[in-house]
Amino acid sequence: MNTKSSPIWVTALLDIMPLSLAVIPWGILTGSLAIEVGLTPLQAQCMSLFVFAGAAQLASLNLLQLASPISSILASTFVISSRHLLYSAVFRRFAMSLPWYKRYPLAFLLTDEMFVVAENRRSKMGSFNFQYAVVAGLGFHFIWNVSTFLGIVLGSTINNLSDFGFEFAIAAIFIAMVIPLVKTSATFIAVLTSGVVVAVCEIFQVPNSILIAGVTGMAAGFGVEQYRGGAL
Amino acid sequence: MIWILLALMTLITFYNRYALFSPLIKIPLGSRAQSFLRYTAPAILTSLWVPIVFVKDKNLNTNLTDPYLAAGLITVVVSLLIKKPLVIVITGLLAFSMIRIVVG
User: Fold this and answer.
1) Sequence-ordered alpha helix ranges (H) in A82-208
2) Cα–Cα distance for residue pair B71/B96, rounded to 1 Å
3) Which terminus in chain A has less CB density within 10 A, N or C?
4) Shortest CA gap A3–chain B (Å)
5) How far is CA A44 from the centre of its chain?
6) Residue A82 and residue B72: Cβ atoms within 8 Å?
């Protein structure tokens, strides 16, 4: 590979690294919870290898622990991971031009974290880069699985992970990625709207708050853009 | 049983990520749809970080000595001044740990 003139895989790994490190505690939690709920170590590892969706995995393990029916576990998996439909819509233009053996891995690796860095790079460089996206996604998949493995090995000896404040690292990373995107009043309104809506949903314990707030914010930003475009 | 559950969950998460890559889905994404989707990253990411900073125990977090709120606000201000993501994240984490130590 032409790594001397364009070490794109190095850039990709460096860009995904902070996000990968921030999810290590969640991987450990997922691995140890899976064992606690009664999955075998192989099943617990396969969950992270193939399902590869932190929030959906944690929710399904909690539901399993409550002996919930399979149908409700699958419904929760669908709802929680449905925001990825939006990511796949954003990358559709680029993915459609790729052969299936590139589309499949690109889709499989399309997490929040990979979407963020790949979309960030696309907006900076002006074009989507397949290799960059896949390397970033693989780096994230690797760290997610290593941390799940640690959780499986450590078992349930790690409790109260939230006491360490790892969640804040995720917040700081997302802030660092969102605020520089706010360059127009439409984007500002999108961010403000989704922020207010998600807070209200969380306070009143409305389910699917992330999706509701995200789509409302997108509609608000789009509305402002259309209104101003029409008026001018 | 667990294996079947894992297989079905894998299919669901993969479907959600692949759905719009499929040539079988003929929905044309016109320029209006593209404009709408441009707000995906800022809107969804905001809905992921705002609850961590502004919501505490199902209430609005208004306690300025709370490390999540205080360091979150500091991170937002720093990100308005400096556009370097790594600098923003490190400043935010330092602020968070220092406030934790001070507040105890």
Assistant:
1) 83-90, 92-95, 100-108, 112-125, 130-154, 166-178, 185-203
2) 5
3) C
4) 24
5) 20
6) no
* B88·A191 Cβ contact <8 A: no
Q: Would you say residue A231 has pLDDT above 70?
A: no
- Could you tell me the end-to-end alpha-carbon distance of chain B, in angstroms, rounded to an integer? 46
ipTM of the complex: 0.88
Q: Is the pLDDT of residue A152 over 70?
A: yes
Closest chain B residue to A74, measured at CA: B9
Amino acid, res. B25: I
Distance from CA of A145 to the nearest CA of B (A): 15
- Return mean pLDDT, chain A: 89
Segment 42-101 of chain B within 8 Å of chain A by CB: 42-55, 58-60, 67-68, 71-72, 75-76, 79-80, 83, 85-86, 88-89, 92-93, 96-97, 100
Residue B46 burial by Cβ neighbours in a 10 Å radius (0-12, 13-18, 19+): buried
- Say how far apart CA A88 and CA B92 lie, in whole Å: 31
Burial of B27 (0-12, 13-18, 19+ CB in 10 A): exposed
**Interval A159-178 mean pLDDT:** 76
Best mutation target among B3, B40, B91 (most A Cβ atoms within 10 Å) is B40
* A140-151 pLDDT per residue, tens: 999 999 999 999
pLDDT digits (tens, 9 = 90+) for A52-70: 998 899 889 988 988 889 9
Q: Is the pLDDT of residue B5 over 80?
A: yes
Structure tokens at B56: 């505490």
Amino acid letter at A47?
M
Sign for the CA dihedral angle at A17, A114, A123, A208 comes to: negative
What pLDDT, in 10s, does the model give residues B18-41? Answer: 999 988 877 777 888 888 988 998
